[in-house]
Recover the amino acids of this structure.
């Protein structure tokens, strides 16, 4: 597709322009002219008789906005402000809350909060419905309109009204905006089990290189856990490249649209594969788009076991096409398909092992062990108060920056299940 194609929308010139751009594939020009004539007449009637004085540009903007909303949840008209916000996304730094949203069943729904951002710290959860933004209802709003309202100068407050499953009524969350600048990849060692834990929070341009570096630095581990929970997606090439680190042949993902020029296949290459270690991928309802490509592709290729909850179900391709220098449309042009041929859109990826979020059930002995660890941490603090300095206490349970402790594992049953799956896979390889 020619991404530089310019579409100029005008009530006066609509018929001629649409005929020029679209008549190549349509034999029934009469129907086309009649339809466009109807649109022009409707705009003229609104301009002349509507109760408020609406200028022609505003009428056309509203018409385009309504058209895009009725196509699908991800297509949108980008006015000047929305277009600037989209460009801010690509620059990598802006003032906001740190959440990815989508329209699901007509409601503005949180795909996931980005780890470490104001929304995450305030307790926003995947699946939350945002009912109001600063008192203004979100019903009928577009994604881009909602994002525009939630963006703003860092350190400025905003109140969102949340509808959450299990809560008796909507509630308000007051959040202070901040600069969103998130570390996309970090890795730790699950020391007791000698397993590499790799967390990918979003798919920016650095994901493949950072994951590759983490794997190369930990080649003697028993397995790898790739955590894609609450990862809203990002760059397709990084999702493809990440799968390619683990798979050495076959289709990773395919893209199919109405226009044959949009169809493409992305295949694994043997030279890019760097490990055959047992692999488990963690997902949940906040795993979307690129995360679903990675988890679904690894599942279809039998390369990884997927653990957690069903993913979000966002598997369509959008491109931004300018219609004027300061305005554009974001249009869905294709859908993603996994190696099995299954579509991701509205379906998502179903885990091999379904585990809902929560803590690991404790018996009396393990519960005592956790309390003992907490007590040591408390006594450490009391010693600091007396001595005015930090006393050295040897404690194998002390949290280290690059280590996941037993307590952390016990607080996350999905992670604990992933560890158990790695142990089983490792045992099967040995036998």
């Amino acid at each position: 597709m020619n991404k530089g194609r310019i579409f100029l929308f005008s009530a006066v010139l609509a018929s001629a322009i649409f005929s020029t751009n679209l008549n190549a594939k349509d034999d029934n020009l009469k129907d086309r002219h009649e339809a466009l004539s109807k649109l022009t007449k409707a705009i003229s009637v609104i301009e002349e008789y509507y109760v408020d004085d609406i200028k022609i540009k505003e009428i056309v903007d509203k018409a385009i906005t309504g058209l895009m909303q009725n196509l699908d949840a991800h297509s949108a008209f980008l006015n000047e402000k929305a277009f600037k916000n989209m460009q801010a996304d690509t620059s990598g730094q802006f003032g906001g809350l740190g959440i990815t949203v989508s329209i699901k069943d007509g409601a503005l729904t949180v795909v996931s909060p980005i780890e470490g951002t104001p929304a995450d710290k305030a307790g926003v959860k995947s699946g939350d419905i945002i009912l109001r933004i600063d008192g203004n209802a979100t019903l009928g709003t577009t994604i881009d309109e909602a994002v525009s309202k939630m963006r703003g100068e860092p350190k400025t407050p905003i109140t969102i009204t949340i509808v959450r499953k299990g809560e008796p009524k909507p509630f308000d969350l007051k959040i202070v905006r901040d600069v969103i600048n998130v570390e996309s990849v970090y890795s730790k060692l699950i020391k007791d089990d000698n397993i590499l834990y790799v967390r990918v929070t979003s798919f920016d341009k650095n994901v493949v290189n950072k994951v590759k570096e983490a794997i190369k630095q930990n080649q003697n581990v028993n397995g790898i856990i790739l955590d894609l929970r609450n990862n809203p997606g990002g760059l397709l090439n990084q999702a493809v490249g990440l799968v390619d680190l683990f798979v050495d042949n076959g289709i990773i993902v395919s893209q199919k649209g109405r226009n044959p020029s949009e169809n493409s296949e992305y295949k694994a290459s043997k030279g890019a594969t760097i490990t055959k270690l047992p692999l488990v991928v963690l997902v949940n309802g906040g795993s979307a788009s690129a995360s679903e490509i990675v988890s679904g592709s690894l599942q279809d290729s039998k390369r990884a076991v997927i653990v957690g909850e069903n993913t979000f179900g966002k598997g369509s391709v959008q491109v931004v096409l300018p219609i004027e220098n300061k305005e554009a449309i974001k249009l869905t042009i294709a859908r993603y398909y996994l190696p099995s041929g299954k579509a991701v859109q509205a379906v998502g990826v179903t885990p091999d092992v379904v585990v809902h979020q929560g803590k690991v059930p404790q018996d009396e002995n393990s519960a005592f062990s956790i309390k003992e660890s907490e007590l040591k941490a408390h006594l450490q603090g009391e010693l600091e108060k007396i001595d005015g300095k930090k006393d050295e206490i040897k404690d194998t349970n002390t949290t280290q920056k690059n280590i996941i402790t037993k307590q952390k594992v016990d607080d996350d049953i999905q992670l604990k299940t992933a560890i158990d799956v790695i142990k089983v896979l490792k045992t099967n390889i040995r036998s």
Remarks:
- The longest helix spans residues 364-387.
- The two ends are 52 Å apart (CA to CA).
